[in-house]
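Me: I'm a chemist; would you kindly supply a protein sequence with its structure tokens?

Assistant:
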Amino acid sequence: LAARADAHKEVRVLAVLAGLNYPGLSNRRVAAMAAGIGAAGTARRQTQRRLVERLGAMGPDARVFLPSLLALHDSVIRSWWVHEPVLRALQSIAPDDPRVFAAMVRALGSNGTHRRFARQTILAAGEEGRRRLIGFLETAPGRARVEGVGFLLEEGVPGSEIGHLILPALTDANARVRSRAVALLPRAGQRTDVVLPRIETLFASDAPDRWLTATQALGALSRLPGDRGPIVNLLFTAVRMPDERVRVIAVQPRLMYDGETERILPVLADLLDDSEASVRREAVDGLGELSAHDETARGHLQAALGDADESVREVARYWLKEGEEEGDVDDD
């Protein structure tokens, strides 16, 4: 009964708020709005936005609406027309609530005015805001974690101080979180031997999407200075995975070829027999990278001219022509 009374109280308050600007709003619609402050399809956008703004103007007195506003924030994360007012209302009502801070951090990965408001709010707190954000990220869920780390890196915080925070996100259940973590790897300042165990965990999974993340992460690591031997070893694992996307990406990190010709060339040659044209095409491209300094690679390019797929043959012809032109220049 107490819960029902509180719900009725919320409906009455919303009805009063709505009546300030929309006197003709029906009780049924107000009741529906109270359940989630405007669940999808229950109210006009301007009505919803005005209600949120009114709640924000009430400040801490509107704390009873915090769960509904948080739910609304999650449901309209990509809706510019109400996202910023929700963030502003949350900040006005409960600025110290961890759930509000988490919503602010997640907004850092959005576009539009709500992202700008989130950045300004965190930056306005100065060094204290930065320390709070770093502390929050230590235990933050995946999406908030990667967006927070990305924000701090953009603000000039050294990767050596916060890069470790993205490591758990590499094995997150959400593929988009993992992808964002991979994108941050080159700036994270983490040693290869610290990251590789996470990548090995992904390869040990039976989920192709996790193999894909692992291979993308290897590509990111291959662009960094340091010993590429362990990276190449795992890339050799990736090129034998049963997922076409994984094999294609595994052949792409060109920097791994430096000083690794003897190891990589037989792998690329084997991939010329792959069942997928996209993989064979990448293998021919890789052989082309090596062909300027290796006659064996050039021989494999010649063999690729007989491939059943035109796009594979075209790449082979391109590299053979490149080799001929370089030879002509050398003769001159």
Observations:
- Residues 32 and 41 are 10 Å apart (CA to CA).
- The chain has a mean pLDDT of 81.
